[in-house]
Amino acid sequence: MNDCPRIIARLDLKGKNLIKGIRYEGLSVIGEAIDYAMKYYLDNADEIIYVDSVASLYGRNSLFTIIQQSTNEIFIPVSVGGGISTIDDVKNLLNSGADKIVLNKAAIENPSLIENISNQIGSQSLVISVQAKKRGINKWEAFKICGREPTGWDVIEWCAEIEKRGAGEIFLTSIDNDGTESGFDIDLIKAVTEKVSIPVIASGGCGSVDDIIELLKKANPSGIAIGTLIHYGYETIKSIKKKLKNAL
Amino acid sequence: MHYKKKIIGIIDYGCGNLTSIHRATIKQNIPSEIISEYSKLKFYSHLIIPGVGSFPNAIKSLKERGFYNEIIEHKKKNKPILGICLGMQLFMQHGFEKEPTKGFGFFDGDVISLQSISQNNKYKIPNIGWYKISKNTGSFEKNTLIQNNENKFYFIHSYFCDVKNKSDCYYFVKFDNKNIPCIIKKENIIGIQFHPEKSREPGLKIFNYFFTL
Q: Which of A58, B62, B73, B196 is the most buried (most CB within 10 A)?
């Protein structure tokens, strides 16, 4: 059916390696990122998202290499994020083969950057990453720098602003649930998908296919980004898609 | 100037992911090059017009870089041209994104926003996803474009081509219960709304088909 949300493999990077974190603290190296990306491509992933988690501290060479290698053999959309801050960064990454650029800190510190970039390269190539931390009932605050620094922005208001400024998509992560395998923050995703009319990719907390099924019963994300579930081999993307097809 | 061998020229006019298209043709063993200078266009047997961005910017850029008239010349000689996504939309008569702009007019009809045909918040715009496409049963030309109706293709767009002549429409995709043309063809001009270079094997095979024209 045409209504199934995209199943997106999310790969957090450190240098050339794939890493996995819990609530953005404590990282473990899983293996070489390009090998896993290739594996997920062959396993029927709809997209790949690379998040360069220590981008601002180290150099970029590994990231460009990974993108170039991806472009050679992986014929599905590849998105890249992590410490990207200037229009030149964006253009360089797109020219080296990335399809979409993911921004967080740079956008929230200077929202006019969203229009700026979107006007030059097209809204379709621009995804804004929103890291949400629960602050109360149906209230979340947006964070930056891998969930470490608060911004004072209410997440729902920030998402409305992102849409208004012309981004193509929102990549929404629950900081509280990320890496915990305890399920998605369904209230968060529901609130955002009801507020905006641009696509939302839900991320953070998925520990089983049942978590995805629960989410899809109550909210309308256009994509689901998964990490833990596939990096540790609990499921394959093909098995996830098969179970979803049977359940929905 | 007559070309002696078949080779695809991928037009670099600053709008689009050229690398992916180039890599896709390499993967399929199809000779191709990225063209950055308009004067070189005539040496290529086949042209690909990629496109990401806005309609007016794309037309402006094609004109500024000298490609616009060369593309028209290419069509006059009935040489094959493949337009992908925004590239396809430029084939229409007008686009209305940001401001009304004239397109090449290879197909009758204009480029219209998805928003104008759907106000259901369940259907997000840009329309992003992997969708099956359906053949226009009214189209008569036998073609090997799509091998398997079960295949899905990767779409990402906020606008679509409102093609007036249904016989130019080869395949449709459904959006909020409406049929949108996603593969259009007239003589040697083909427009594809989705991204064949991002749609795995079934997408890559489309480049092979194009190269047989």
A: B196
